Amino acid sequence: MGTASFGGKFQGRRAALLATGAGGTFPRLFYTREPIYGMPQTSVRTSALPASEEKAAHVRRMFSSIAPRYDLLNHLLSLNIDRVWRRRAVDRLGWESNPSGTYLDSCAGTLDLAVELARRPGFTGRVVGSDFTYAMLEHGTDKLAAIAVEPACADAMLLPFADEAFDGATVGFGVRNLADLDVGLRETARVLKAGARFVVLEFTTPGWQPFRGLYLFYFLRVLPAVGRLVSRHDSAYTYLPESVRQFPEPLELAARMERAGFADVGWTTLSGGIAALHWGTKR
Ligand SMILES: C[S@@+](CC[C@H](N)C(=O)[O-])C[C@H]1O[C@@H](n2cnc3c(N)ncnc32)[C@H](O)[C@@H]1O
Hints:
CATH class: Alpha Beta
Structural class: alpha/beta
CATH superfamily: Vaccinia Virus protein VP39
Number of strands: 7
Strand content: 15-25%
Bound molecules: S-adenosylmethionine
Helix content: 25-40%
CATH topology: Rossmann fold
CATH architecture: 3-Layer(aba) Sandwich
Strand order of the largest sheet: 3-2-1-4-5-7-6
Radius of gyration: 18 Å
Order of helices and strands: HHEHEHEEHEHHHEE
Number of helices: 8
Distance between the termini: 29 Å
């Protein structure tokens, strides 16, 4: 079938990532450590939220910088609940109807969500874990021994995949970071087959008092302080709560998924409203 075997192994800094996929679906891609959009990776902003035109470059620099501590902080700051949320996301994907299919995990970061799918008993397909931050993918590759996950360095708003290449897609804590949410949603719809499921996991803010008050204290005070200490990055864990605050509520996100080309859109909150799970089916 002419598929290059990546098996989770990086072949070198600039190794070819995806050669020809099944049926010639995937174009040839290359890793690059060069910053996209010509932004130097060393410049660190202290303001948490950049203007939208700078957002992609800012987000990529930020994740490059926190990549070595990203997993540790995820599990620490969420008390390991992030693992449960990713399991719930994969539960919603409906991969069981096509266990040998090809799935996309966009904004895959250190590949936890992609690995969660690929490790499911009975799953015999492939998962492409794509992210535009090379360092995040690189830190995820240790998890890939003998697992059918193929990392791909790619922008979620301009995916280098053919129309209708995938049987399903996930995004975990990624869409909030996109410079243009609607473009990203439409681009995911483009690469999905009609009838394929799309699952989005994202933070939201609990509405129920007094839990809301306690949570906001933790999210706005404790988390940024611990995040700064452990990641040694000035603003990444201030960006997190601010970006959640500015992100659409679940109801609006559901509406935008519909506008982007998804039907049967639904959502549920997780852990008292700290996170939300969204799903839809490509029309
Ligand atoms: C909070 S991390 C989530 C990583 C992973 N999905 C998880 O569940 O832990 C967000 C990721 O989105 C990636 N990202 C943000 N904007 C992106 C874009 N336009 N294209 C591709 N990846 C993007 C970042 O590089 C980062 O790795």
